[in-house]
Amino acid sequence: MKKVGFLFVMIVMLLLPHAASAEENQLIIVNKATNQLAFYDHGELVKTFPVGTGKKDNLTPEGTFPIVNKIKNRPYYSGGIPGGSPNNPLGDRWLGLNARGTYGTTYAIHGNNNEDSIGKYVSGGCIRMHNEDVRWLFDQVEVGTNVKIVNSSKSFNDIAKASGYQLTPPIKIMLDGKEIKVDSEPFIQNNRVLVPMRSIFTALGADVHWDSSTGTITATKKWDTIKLTINSKQAIINDQTHALDVPPLLQKNRTYVPTRFISEALGIEVKWDNKNRIVSLISPKPPTRAIIDVTINGQMVKKGGFIEGAISLVQVNAILSSLGVTPQYDGKNSTLTISYDETTLVVTSNKKQGTLNGENITLPKAAVIVDGHFYVPAITIADAFAGTLQYDSATKHLVMRLPEIVEEEAHNDELSPIEETEVVE
User: Fold this and answer.
1) All domains of the chain, ordered by start, with CATH?
2) What separation, in Å, do the N-terminal and C-terminal C-alpha atoms of the chain show?
3) An example of a Gene Ontology BP annotation on this entry (predicted)?
4) pLDDT digits over 130-151, tens only?
C-alpha cells in the first residue's frame, strides 16, 4: 500500500506543474452573446472560431471551467454510436470540462456531425465547433487550460483582463518614427496584426466616413478613395476590387483592418517588430525631380518641366500658352483637356490612363499637379500632336517642336465686270 500511495503522490506532483502552466499560459473564452470562441496562448489572442451553444440560455453553464480530459473518437454512449463514426454528434474530438459537478463527462467543447449548426443556439449545453476547427484546437490546448464561458458585450481582451489573464503589452504604432495615438488598441488575431482604421488613416491625412446602415467605411486622401465593408474580404480602391486576407472587423464601435491592407491601399511601407510589438508605418519618399528648361518651337520656358525617373514632364500651361493654346481644366475631376490642331488630348492627375480623340491611351507616367501646375509627360504631348523631342542631359534642356497651326485665309473674290453687267435690279 505504501508503494501505491507513493506512486500516486508522484503522479500528482508530475501533473500539477503541467496544469498550472496551462492555466497560466493558455485561456479559452466562449462568448454566448456572439457564439464565438477565442484561444489565447502566452498572452496572445491566437485564433477565434464560431461555435454553437445551448438552445436555451441556461443550458451552457457560465463561469470558469478547466479542461480535464482530451479524447479522440469518443463514443456517443446514449445513442450507441461508436467513436469516429460520421454519424457521431460529438465529432471526433472531445475537450471535457469540469463543470456543474461533472468531471469532463457531460460538458465539453467538441466537434459535430452537423456543420450547419455552428453559430447557432442548438446544443444541450456543450460547445460545438466545426470539425476542422476543433481538431486544430485539440492539438494546441493543454489539459488544465481554463475555459471561461460568458454572455457579454465586451471584447475578448477585456474579458481576458477581467479574468486576471496576463496579456502581452499593447501594440504601438509608429508613423515615420513618431508614435500614433490610437483611440482603441491594436491586437493580433489569426496571426494578423489588426489596427483601428480611423486612427491610422486620419494620421495619414485621409478623411474617414462611417455608414452604419451598410457597415461601410470610406477613406479619401487626395485622389485616392478606399471603401471597406465589415466582414467582407473585398475592398474597393479607386474603383478597383482588391482581395483581403482578413476582412475588416467591428469591435467596440471601431473598425479594424490588417496592417497589410494599409500598405496596399496607400502605398505605405509596413514593418512588424514582433519582439517589441511595434508596427512601423513608413511614408514613401517623394520622387526625385530635376528641374529642366523647355524650348517650345524656338521659345524658351525657364523651369518649364522636370525629369522624374528618366521621364520628362512639362508644365502644360506654360509651354502651350506661347502657341496660343489654352487647356481646359476640370477641378472637380482633376482632368485637363488640350485641343490643338484638330486633336484633343484628355489626361487626369495621378492616372496613367487618358484619351486621344476619344480613344483610350496609356501614359508612360501619370500626369501630376505640382504647386498648382499641371504636368504631363513630354512624350505624350509630342506623340499626340505629331511633335518631336530632343533632350540635352548636360544642360538639362528639353527642346520640343510641334507643328505650327496654319490658319486658312479668307478669300473674297471680286466679281468680274461681266458678272457685274449681268446683275439685274
Assistant:
1) 22-162 (2.40.440.10), 172-282 (3.30.457.10), 290-401 (3.30.457.10)
2) 149
3) peptidoglycan-protein cross-linking
4) 999 999 999 999 999 999 999 9
- H helix or E strand, kind and range, residue 382: helix 378-384
Residue with cell string 472560431: 49
d(CA 126, CA 35): 12
The answer to whether the beta carbons of residues 341 and 403 sit under 8 Å apart is yes
Determine which one of 42, 110, 242, 373 is catalytic. Answer: 110
Only one residue has cell 483581403, namely: 244
Report which listed range, 185-194, 200-209, 253-262, 363-372, is most confident.
Answer: 363-372
| Nearest of 39, 8, 7 to residue 25 by alpha carbon | 39
Picking from 177, 222, 187, 215, the residue whose alpha carbon sits closest to that of residue 201 is 222
Tell me what pLDDT residue 251 has.
78
Q: Which of 19-28, 181-190, 321-330, 370-379 has the highest mean pLDDT?
A: 370-379
DSSP sequence for 145-208: -EEEEE--SS-HHHHHHHTT--PPPPPEEEETTEEPP-SS--EEETTEEEEEHHHHHHHTT-EE
How far apart, in Å, are the Cα atoms of 221 and each of 176, 329, 335?
18, 20, 17
Annotation says 242 is catalytic: no
Q: Which residues lie below 8 Å from residue 52, measured CB to CB, with a gap of 6+? A: 35, 112, 117, 118, 119, 120, 121, 122, 123, 127, 128, 129
Q: What phi and psi, each to the nearest 5 degrees, are found at residue 266?
A: -120, 5
Nearest Cα to 264, choosing from 233, 289, 310? 233
Q: Strand ranges (DSSP E) for 325-395?
A: 328-330, 335-340, 343-348, 353-356, 359-362, 368-370, 373-377, 388-392
Contact 203, 175 (CB under 8 A): yes
E strand or H helix that includes residue 236: strand 234-237
Beta-bridge partners for 267: none
Q: d(Cα 60, Cα 57) in Å, to the nearest integer?
A: 7
Could you tell me which of 381, 412, 374 has the C-alpha nearest to residue 398?
A: 381
> Which one of the listed residues 18, 42, 126, 209 is annotated catalytic?
126
Task: Give, in degrees to the nearest 5, the angle at Cα 62 between 61 and 67.
Answer: 75
Alpha-carbon distance values, 118 to 41, 83, 111 (Å): 24, 20, 10
Q: Which residue has the cell 480602391?
A: 237
